[in-house]
Each structure stands twice: as structure tokens, then as C-alpha cells.
Design brief:
CATH architecture of the largest domain: 2-Layer Sandwich
Number of helices: 11
Structural class: alpha/beta
Radius of gyration: 20 Å
Number of strands: 7
Helix content: 40-55%
Shape: globular
Largest sheet: 5 strands, mixed
Length: 278
């Protein structure tokens, strides 16, 4: 309903401005008076304590709610996937997200929340959109200079970006933002879906990286009990070859994992967290 409001270091006020305006427009459409009693916000980049505190203070200053809770978008999805009336035992489970980046959140049987990944493209985000987009660029480059096998990835990328040759792609990549590189990931997934070996290997490697996030959190769950896992993010839609590869990697590396097939309704998670606010 509004523009992006991802948190960046020292960026709480900028995010709060966007969120507050979105809240005001939503309240006007719903006929709800402000300030609201409770406001729960899930924002990318707000997964750590300092960013949460800064965003909560900034939102309070904008007067859209009397009490606020800021958290990451992944933790909101975790609450949606594993409410106490669903998901794993007592609402326990792991939520794996692959979009521009990659991260996994877990709620253990005692109700504690843990995370793995979500370090950003500079430090990690393996298996996410930026990682796959860069793999597509690398494959195109290696094929062009003779270090890698041929594929249609170069022609796919040129067509998608409106470029004419590899030299133009080099210039584009030098100026591209992480989000622009991540937007190339679907072209690699399409190539994998159509049977191209280079792309399929990248998808399988991405799946192993994503399953490693789940594996890092599995230690918080007693064995040999089944481990509930839900997925989300633009790269893990039901028909995605990456989701199929994640399912296969889980079966091989973490057989007690049970991958949910239902859709995660993130706004429901925000409502659940709001209801828990004291």
C-alpha cells in the first residue's frame, strides 16, 4: 500500500515517515481513528535490537499509535506461519525466506525466537535473489570468455535489460544496485526450469545454502521429533524450481523436516503479535 520502508543503519526516521503515512492512509480508508492502541511493524532490516528501538521511538514520535512494536518482516511471517493454534508443536517451527536476500527464523518449543542468515548481500544472503542474479551474470561472463559452458543466460539477460551485447552488460552491472541484480534471479530460475545445466547447478547450490539456514536452527528443536518448516519470499513460490530443490535438499540433509504447503499470510502474523502486546 505504500513505498518501501526497509530499515538501514541510522535510517529509522526515513522508514518511520513512510510507515506513518501508510498507516494514516490505511486508517482513513478503514474509518479508524488515530492514534491506534497498538501498532506492529515488520520491516526488512529491523531484525536487531538497536534498529527495533530506533524505529519504535520514531513511530511513537509520529503519533500514529500509543504503543508500537517493531520487528523484522521475517519474524512477522514466523508468527503467521506458526501461531499457537497451528504449525508445529505449541507454535514451534522454522520460517525460511528467500527474496532479494535470505534468512530463516525459528520459534523453539519454549517460545524463544532465533534467526540464521539475513546478513545482507555484502556478508551473506546466500541462495537469495542477489546471490542468484550474480550467479547468472557470472555464468554469462564465463561462457563469453571461454571459461564456462554455453547457455542461454546471456541472451536472456540482454533481452530482459534491453541491451545489445556483453560489453553493455558489463557497463550495466558496474552501476547496478543489489535490487537490480536480484531482479535477474527469475531469468536463471526460468533457465533451470527449462533444463539448462548451468542454471540447474546454481539452483541446487542455492537450495543447499537455504537448507543450511534451516539446519543451523534445527539444533533448537529436540530430536527425533518432526520439524515444521514453512517458506516465503518471491523465490520460493509453489511453482519455483528453487522450492523444488529446497524440498529435495531437506529430504536428503534434514529428513525430519516437514515442509508446509500452505501460504503464509504475513498480516495475520502482525495481528497475532499485536494481540500479545501487554
Amino acid at each position: 500500500m505504500g513505498p518501501g520502508a526497509a530499515m538501514r543503519p541510522e535510517g529509522a526516521e526515513r522508514s518511520a515517515v513512510v510507515i506513518a503515512e501508510t498507516v494514516r492512509r490505511a486508517a482513513a480508508l478503514a474509518g479508524v481513528d488515530l492514534p491506534a492502541a497498538r501498532l506492529v511493524v515488520g520491516a526488512a532490516g529491523a531484525g536487531r535490537a538497536q534498529e527495533r528501538r530506533e524505529l519504535e521511538a520514531a513511530l511513537l514520535a509520529h503519533g500514529v499509535a500509543r504503543r508500537t512494536r517493531a520487528t523484522s518482516d521475517g519474524e512477522i511471517a514466523l508468527a503467521a506461519a506458526f501461531g499457537k493454534e497451528g504449525g508445529g508443536r505449541d507454535g514451534a517451527g522454522i520460517f525460511l525466506n528467500a527474496g532479494t536476500g535470505s534468512v530463516a527464523f525459528a520459534r523453539d518449543p519454549e517460545g524463544r525466537v532465533h534467526r540464521s542468515g539475513g546478513l545482507g548481500w555484502q556478508l551473506g544472503d546466500e541462495g537469495g535473489g542477489y546471490w542468484l542474479g550474480r550467479r547468472a551474470l557470472q555464468a554469462a561472463g564465463r561462457a563469453t570468455d571461454g571459461r564456462g559452458e554455453g547457455s542461454t543466460l546471456l541472451s536472456r539477460l540482454l533481452a530482459a535489460l534491453g541491451l545489445t551485447d556483453f560489453g553493455a552488460l558489463i557497463r550495466w552491472a558496474a552501476l547496478a544496485s543489489p535490487a537490480q541484480v536480484a531482479a535477474l534471479a527469475p531469468h536463471l530460475l526460468n533457465a533451470a526450469r527449462e533444463g539448462e545445466a548451468v542454471a540447474q547447478r546454481s539452483v541446487e547450490e542455492a537450495a543447499r545454502e537455504l537448507v543450511a539456514l534451516v539446519g543451523a536452527l534445527a539444533r533448537h528443536f529436540p530430536e527425533p521429533e518432526p520439524l515444521a518448516v514453512a517458506t516465503g519470499g518471491g523465490l520460493l513460490r509453489p511453482t519455483s524450481p528453487l522450492l523444488a530443490a529446497v524440498r529435495a535438499a531437506l529430504a536428503a540433509d534434514l529428513p525430519r523436516a516437514q515442509l508446509a504447503r500452505r501460504t503464509v499470510d504475513a498480516p495475520l502474523g502482525a495481528l497475532r503479535l499485536a494481540a500479545e502486546m501487554e
